[in-house]
Amino acid sequence: MPEIETRAAQPRRRSAKSLAMSSAIVAAAGYILITGATPAASAASASGDASASAVIYWAFRNVLSGDCLTTYASGAIRMQPCDADAKAQEWHWINPDRTDGYRLLKNRWTGKCLRMEGREDRVGSYDCDAFGGNLSTMHWKTVLMDGTRYRIRNAYAPDYLQPGPDGVYVTHLPIGDSANWRIARRD
């Protein structure tokens, strides 16, 4: 008959480095469980990377005016004072199939996508599935200007998003900060 061990088990001693590594792993796992996205995927989504698994909404605030890109049920796009509760100011990137970095920018409230209308280069919002979602006037990407300012570029022209006196337009010759945006995550 085998002998039965009767001594109490001794606790395993762990180094400070081992404890720090365990803490980092637990923190990362907790972040993934809570948000559904890895920290790298969340940061990448702001720059247009399609690797994020959870829907992340963004607000686009114009550097010059301080107002946010806002849509209306009619499809009109205007600049309005930023409001943290306004779903009409929340956008997310979709259509990761393109390899050139351009994607659809879909509004949370209307479910419509930002599109250059073609006449006077005005911007509006339209059904994201129009033309199979492949219409280049509906595809956008961010271009980092410095550490915090972006320009939003259209695939068709390729022109940049810029507010005008009675709407939002795209322009080939952006003027200073009027074509620059700060992009903030909205959760």
UniProtKB/TrEMBL annotation:
The lineage of its organism: Bacteria, Bacillati, Actinomycetota, Actinomycetes, Streptosporangiales. PROSITE patterns: RICIN_B_LECTIN (PS50231). Keywords: Cell outer membrane, Lipoprotein, Membrane, Palmitate, Signal, Toxin, Virulence. Its main location: membrane. This is Uncharacterized protein. The keyword Cell cycle does not apply. It comes from the Bacteria. GO terms for molecular function: toxin activity. Coiled coil: none annotated. It is a lipid-anchor.
